[in-house]
Every structure is written in structure tokens, then in C-alpha cells.
Amino acid sequence: MSKELTIGLVVPFATDKVPDEGPMMYPGVKFIPRAVGVRALTPEGYDAAWDGILPAARQLAKEGVDAIMVIGTSLTFYRGYEAHQRLLEQLREETGLPVSTMTEAVVDGLKSVGAKRIAVATAYADEVNNRLADFLRKSGFEVLALEGFGLFGFGEPGKKSEQDIIELSGKAIEEAGKPDAVLISCGGLLTLGCAVPIEQRHGVPVVTSTQSAFWKAMRLAGDSGHVDGRGKMLAQSQAVPA
To answer: For a 10 Å CB count at each end of the chain, is N or C smaller?
Structure first.
């Protein structure tokens, strides 16, 4: 990178905190977080945070950031495909900046590895899982299998170990038969070390919420997003259509 990039992050936490994986993936980048406070992994727990997304993005635009990423997969897909597309339009219109969401990032990540028929592993319980499956179908994917941890508490996904995540993903892959990729959905799951073991064991590309979000943010800011040693998606550096 020729200059230090500055990426604004709308984060689902109660405080302005950068997810640990971002600086681990891209240590030369400055991240500025603005919190919106998701209360629980339920539609009711997302509502107040949803209302905070646009104001937080407007604040970040005043900070001189190169691009804005809205962290939180379920936060950005739970109201459905059309509401998500309207949110993106509003964000881009009101900030005048390249903006994306964690949900759009996972869709782009899946497309970047050529996936159409997918297995899905999530942190969520049934209601949120059903909304995710519907969103993915409307985005052009065939969901062959979906397995969730069944969590409701906002901080609970972070307590799952990489081994837990690898095992749940493996269960979804085996149930799916021969998927083109596996999606691990939930920015709260700590997935940075999961892609390589899953890809080695199952021969299936891995796309995860957090890695996709930071990769997409880098690409919005003009970088390739390339990272070695963290799985097939991040190892790619060719351009993906917006």
C-alpha cells in the first residue's frame, strides 16, 4: 500500500472497539470504530442497532475515512434482502463514500470462490438462520445444508473455540454432500484460524463473516485484500465485480 488506509467500521459492540482480526489481517491499516450496540442475536436485539447504522456512518464520513464497513452479518440481513439493498443505497448516498456491509461481503466472498451451492454454519438459532437462508437464496445461492450453534446472547459466539467452529462447519459440509463452499456466518465467531484446517480436511473453500468484511473493506479502499496463509478466499487478489 502506498499510503496508510483508514477504514471506518460501524461495529455491533456497545463500545467503539475494532474486532481483533482486522489489525491481525491488515496491520498497516488504521481502523476507526463507531458502536451501535446489538443487544441480542434476535430481531428485537438488532432493532435499536439498525437505527444507529446511518448516524454512525455519517460520523465516520466526517473522520476522513477511505471506506466504511458495517460489521454484523445478522444485523444487516435480518430485515431481508430488499431492506438490506435500501440500507446500502442510503449509506452510499449519505456518506458519498465506498460503503459495504458484512452481509454483502460474504456474498462477494462466496462469488469470489465460484460458489453457487453452499453449506452454511452459523452462531444463530432457527429464526435468524431462516432469515439468512432466505437472504442467500435471494442472492442466487442454493443452500444445501445449514447448521447453527443456536445462540441468542450477543457475546456468546466469541466463547466458541476454533475447534467448535471447524466441527460445526464439517457437519454442514458433510450434510450438504458436495458443496462449492462453506459459509461461516457471524462476526462474533473467531474464525481467522478456521479456513485452512477446513479446506485441508474437506477440500471446500471457506468464506467467513469477519474475514470477508475486512477483505471487502480493503478492496473498497483500493487494496487487493490479499492475505497469505488464511485460506483460499484471502489468498486471491484478482478484482471481483462490485
So the answer is: C
